[in-house]
Amino acid sequence: MSEAQAINYRGRKAARAGSEQRRKAILEASLRIVVKEGVRGVRHRAVAKEANVPLSATTYYFKDISDLIADTFALFVEKVMSDLVVPIYKHVGDFLEHNRDQVKTDPVFANQVIDSLTQMIVAFIKVEVTEQRDQMLAEQAFKHECLRDEGLRAIAQTYFDHLLSEMVELCRQIEVDDPEIAGELLMATMFRIEHEGLLVPPDQFDEVKATKMIRQLLQSFSPVPYQQA
Fold it and tell me: DSSP code of 63?
């Protein structure tokens, strides 16, 4: 599937490997604070304490809080894309590509693919809201902050554009008539399920409801009439 767009960092660039490690440690500390306290908890002194570095180190790399928050969001986007989003959509894309010809010629098999695709997507969401919960909490915090801070919106747009491109490509591979709109609907539904999953303890994630929602949506997209086995 599609390649991620480059994320631009704002803060001072590190000239040496050791400096880059310290800079990244500061951003990772800032990200932990976002998870625990929200974006408003990010302050130079708090981040320096969390990262176990001198206060002067945070102000050296990031001249103001806006740059620190923006680069924390940029790090978050890179981590989520490389560790979670790209691998799962590559897996889904490979699965669809491998079964493309049979889907076109065998309606029964096409229905089975919808079930398999549903299971993959729901399994992905379940991992997000149970095992990768901190990342999802950070995403929610950044989404909210983007409403306040115009400086974060370009990063957010890159992030959401990439997520949408993956959804659209998925819909294109299952030969949806309007993959752009279908991708928007799929992304919105996944966001809804993720949000509901974060409102309850991890062990209360409603996998049955999530499966019904995703399956019904994919059925509505499919040019092949769905018949449950």
Answer: S
